[in-house]
Amino acid sequence: MNGSVRGKLAITELELSELKTDYHAIRERLEGGFSGFVLPGGCRVASELHLARCQAKKVVRALVAIEHSGKKSPADILFKYANLVANTLYALASLTNFIEGVEEVEFVSKSYPMPKK
């Protein structure tokens, strides 16, 4: 993505579409899908995927900072792609924990409590 910000845009709608297809395929493999956010962790591979997701989110924040600086406005597809990479890594971490039989710990916000069912 670095080259797409500094120079010629190298990410295409096709690549975005392919990643979106992969993301949805991963989510379909998870029984019950996502019920909320989970704390990062689990097996070693899932933990590393969570760390990679953190780096992807840093890219998203850097793109926002570039846009807010007024110097350059990154292409809209870069925001979509970076967010989708982060979401895909999150889904891969959940799938990895599922395959390994590791139960994930759901994050419960003290600031925004979930409504009682």
The run of helices and strands is: HHHH
Beta-strand level of the residues, as a percent range? under 5%
Please report the number of helical segments.
Answer: 4
Main sheet specs = none
Shape: globular
Report low-confidence residues grouped into runs of 5 or more. Answer: none
Category from helices, strands and their pairing? mainly alpha
Cα radius of gyration in angstroms:
16 Å
Quote the average pLDDT.
Answer: 86
Total beta strand runs = 0
The separation of the N and C termini measures 42 Å
* Helix-residue proportion: 55-70%
List the helices and strands and how they pair.
Layout: H1 2-6, H2 13-29, H3 44-69, H4 76-100
Helix pairs in contact: 2-4, 3-4
What does this structure look like?
This protein is mostly helical and about 120 residues long. It has a domain at about 40-100. The protein is about 60% helix and about 0% strand. It contains four helices and no strands. It has helices at about 1-5, 15-30, 45-70, 75-100. Helix 2 (about 15-30) runs parallel beside helix 4 (about 75-100) and helix 3 (about 45-70) runs antiparallel to helix 4. The longest helix has 26 residues, at about 45-70. It is globular, with a radius of gyration of 16 Å. The N and C termini lie far apart (about 40 Å). The model has no long low-confidence stretch (mean pLDDT about 85).
